[in-house]
Design a protein that fits this description.
Mean pLDDT: 80
Strand content: 25-35%
Distance between the termini: 161 Å
Number of domains: 5
Number of strands: 20
Order of helices and strands: HEEEEHEEEHEEHEHEEEEHEEEHEEHEH
CATH topology of the largest domain: wza like fold
Largest sheet: 5 strands, mixed
Shape: elongated
Strand order of the largest sheet: 7-6-10-8-9
Length: 407
Amino acid sequence: MNTKRKRHAAYLIILCSIVLIFAQETKLSYDEENAMIVLQPSDRITISYIDVGPQGNPIERSNIFTIRPDGTIFHELLGIVSVADMTIMEAEELLTENFSRYFTQPRVAVSVIEKTSIKVILYGEVSRVGVFPVKPNTTIAEFIIEKGGTTPEADISRITISRNDGSKVIFDMERYLFTDEAVNNVFLKDKDKIIVPRFKLQEKYGRLSKNYILQYGNVLEIIINEMALMETNPAQAESYIVDSEGNIFHRLFGLVHLGGLTVDKSQNILAEMAKRHFREPIVTVDMLELSSRNVFVFGEVLRPGIYPIEGNIQLAEFLANIGGMTDAADLREIVITRKQGKPVIFDMEDFLFKRDDSRNVFLEDGDRIIVQKRQRGIFVRMSEKLQPVSVLISIVSSILMVYMIVT
């Protein structure tokens, strides 16, 4: 009996040795590949290991598992094991450690039967926006380059990957491309949202200097905060254009002359003005644009003239920014004539009182905006013409009345 047990033990040792040699040789061939394959939920995998039968015989056992949405599998011997986001090699090391509770020298092999399909959303300053299927274990840099890269306006230093669990990853592609520094070139996961932002022009011009001298056409971003409310209720940024006379028309301060001043000096002037409206004002002034397009404004406006415009600005907002219209303005028929095409009619009354935004057109370079005088009715015009006569009659009647009283 002892001889039979010794023979079984010898067989087991030989078999384990063969398995070990095979595993070592196989490991050399696919270690590099396994280092790149990352397990994800919905992947179907096989886990193989050596067990000992009832009579001491070595038995190879294999089980097929589908990784659950929470990233775990349920093994008949080990129970719940979390394997998602691990490479195959890392999963084998974890399972080997867990099998060590039951075997002296466990040997474990993990293989992928079916890899889950991954889809990600690509949006922002890229050549191709859309939802794309992605090969497993694709990095963010590789994916963006394969899809045609980014636009010239893209800020590639702040690419955001928004994940399905609510977390966010910031990837600096600029450092990845132009330096040898380690960057967060992560593997993409299912339902990732990749947002490539537009380069913030205020940051670009903010790098110039606070000593930049303001001039016609500059577009400024002005923020005025109350110090006590900066954290809980921060103010919104407002954009203003320096006109041909070097002025901006601020909603609180009215006409402010900033042309010929540095950005820093302008900030100080606005901070002094803000003290009339805030207890402890915090004012920041930044450049948005150095130059812009022009439109012409005529008629019943408070400040007619030539104005630079920047970006996508609509007519109603533009008229409000330059100070508004006179009391005599005809709000129902504001006319825009363009270089090419028919005149555009805008009804400010519908925009204001009926909240009809459909005709609030975007301004174009060279637009001529005519705010006409309000046309009055026939009776109003007749009364205006008769007014001098009525005044004369009133004066004559008053003189006659006084004469009669005196006589």
